Amino acid sequence: MGEAEKTPEEFQTNTGKWKAFLWSYLRRYRLRLAFGVAFVVARDLIGYTIPLLISIGIDTLAHSPRETASAGVALVSLGIAAAALPRFAFQTAARLSLMSTSRNIEYEMRRDLMRHFFALDASFWSRTRVGDAMAHAVNDLNAVRMMVGPGATALFEGVTALPVALAVMGWVNWHLTLAALLPLPFAFWALLYAGRMIRHRFDAIQSLFSTMSAAVQQTVSGVRVVRAFVQEQNETSRFDEMNRSYAKSNRELALYSSSLDPMLAFATGLSVLIVLGYGGRLVLEGSLSVGDFVMFTTYMALLSRPVSSLGRAVNLLQRGAASVARLHALFAQRPKIVDPGVSGKDSGAAPVPLRELQFDDVSVSFGKNVALAGVSLRIPFGSTVAILGPTGAGKTTLARLIPRLLDPSSGCVRFDGRDVRDMPLEQLRSQISLASQETYLFSATLGENIAMGAPSASASQIAEAAQMAGLEEDLRAFPLGLQTIVGERGVMLSGGQKQRVALARALLRRPRILVLDDTLSRVDAVTADFILRQLRHASWSQTTVFIATRIAAARHADHIVILSEGRVVEAGRHDELLASNSYYARMARLQNLEHELATL
Ligand SMILES: Nc1ncnc2c1ncn2[C@@H]1O[C@H](COP(=O)(O)OP(=O)(O)OP(=O)(O)O)[C@@H](O)[C@H]1O
User: Fold this and answer.
1) What domains are there in the chain, each with its CATH number?
2) How many CB atoms lie within 10 A of CB 402?
3) Contact present, 468 and 538 (Cβ < 8 Å)
4) Does the keyword Acyltransferase apply (predicted)?
5) How far, in Å, CA of 594 to CA of 600, rounded?
6) Whether residue 222 has its Cβ less than 6 Å from ligand 1
């Protein structure tokens, strides 16, 4: 199986390179990150001088004469107060550097993810659920931001404070310091164990969330079908099962996440206990001053914060690592349709106008399913070609080959002798308009939907395209005309209206090659006839390739092609095909009969 065929889940097992992937984003901010870390270190270094100052203050009180003691204590107090200012400054600078970096990285990854989504082709989207993609774009990116910002801050809070405090404590009394470190292996084990568990659970939770988002998205989009087939109960219990398992995994994650802090607090508590017991004895024996003892215990108390920071860091870093691995797996997906791009000498040049279209022994297979088998066609520029054939004959597959939404498994699609695979995608697609079988309308106005492929079109151009697509009467019936909001996926329009909006969208670009994939199937015969006449008399020259189910639509085409089981079985003009005992002639007789019956 090639890389492109792997699912994100399969990539997840190959997460070795996710660190390099993350670094590719971090690298740009390494200076800012280094400053951020330096600010955290500086802030904590200043913070950790405070117990030292307290110790000096206490020992000054205990050992100095009364008149100098109060001045000494005042000086120490001043020192403690003065330390607050740079601490605050470093704290703010650290937050600004690390948090702004995390926001920038989140922004860049999201931007790249959107670009990547657009670059991935139908082969990816046919096996990926929309909800899945949404989960990546929202939840995983959020976890990455939390890792780079608060996670990194917490990590450096922990790792700088610990050695500083331990160095000062060791310098005062290394015996007592070693004794205080006895619970360290337990804390270390807790960090590793909980960290591993958090990562596994979070990974599972993110996958479950993806599945659940996909299910919500599908059920909500298909709510009419669910209602029509009285499947509310079944859908609810199916969703409930997923929801329950999601909640269970979250409870487990919460258990591991929340157990980390108490376990670390327990380890710190044990250390404090050791220091109080053993250190107290040292004070009584006179081998440790009261000031040093107080400093020791203050450090121990102060250490609880960085230790807890380490716990938080492990939590956020493990979640972030799971999400980076998932994102990396997604970014590792490659589109099958590769854009050859524009070569240096062609950049900036106007695209070469497309003229003659040729299918040269084209075959397309989806696994074992052969959709097209050795199709050869030559379509001169400016001609109108109708493609007909039974369902599953390969008509849509043929249409999708023209703008390279699909590549042939063998054979070649050419424009003026040039393989479409050698043409820059932008140049190819900018000259071709495909109105596909399933129209997709955005939740915007009618006008905005029509202008989707030509955002700079003027109002009169939009109105002209709408008129050509036979929408004029419908627009008159809408009080807001082109400003009418069509609702999510165009729910406020009839099937035929949606198809004509999609057709107007295709026409507005005045394409050189117009491909209509059964675009008029839900339009009544009279309107369809009107539209086809409009297309024949368009004010610009174009090739029209249209897939039709009705003979009435195909009769005026310059060339009619009948596909069956992926092969061209008949081809010719309307009267030529009618004269023979062909599939076309049989279909014409049948449709005539239907028409007569309907008239009766
Ligand atoms: N993405 C795909 N993956 C697998 N098989 C596919 C895919 N797209 C099409 N096929 C198969 O290829 C064959 C041709 O499909 P195609 O959509 O081109 O037929 P059609 O003539 O347009 O049919 P209809 O008139 O019903 O729209 C069918 O057997 C279909 O199941």
Assistant:
1) 3-331 (1.20.1560.10), 357-599 (3.40.50.300)
2) 24
3) yes
4) no
5) 10
6) no
Give the span between the Cα atoms of 8 and 73, in whole angstroms: 64
User: Is pLDDT of 321 > 60?
Assistant: yes
The predicted model gives 154-174 an average pLDDT of 80
Does this model's pTM top 0.80?
no
Q: Tokens 């040049």 label which residue?
A: 349
Query: For residue 148, how many other CB atoms are within 10 A of its CB?
Result: 28
Quick one: which atom of ligand 1 is closest to the CA of 364? 12
CA-CA distance, 538 to 382, in Å (whole number)?
A: 11
- Phi, psi angle pair for 130, to nearest 5°: -60, -40
Which residue blocks in 173-231 are alpha helix, DSSP H?
A: 174-180, 184-221, 223-228
Q: Which tokens sit at 271?
A: 């250390």
Strand order in the sheet with 357-366: 369-379, 357-366, 410-415, 418-419
Please give the full DSSP string across 306-355, using - where no structure is assigned: HHHHHHHHHHHHHHHHHHHHHHHHHHT---SS------GGGTTSPPPPP-
Q: What is the ipTM, given to two decimal places?
A: 0.96
The residue among 331, 257, 242, 351 whose CA lies nearest residue 12 is 331
Residue 369: CB within 6 Å of ligand 1?
A: yes
C-alpha to C-alpha distance for 237 and 276, rounded to whole angstroms: 58
Residue 396: CB within 6 Å of ligand 1? yes
Give the lowest-confidence range in 83-92, 321-330, 470-479, 589-598: 589-598
Q: Which amino acid is at 340?
A: P
Strands (E), 499-538: 513-517
Write the single-letter amino acid at 208.
L
Q: How many Å lie between the centroid of ligand 1 and the Cα of residue 548?
A: 15
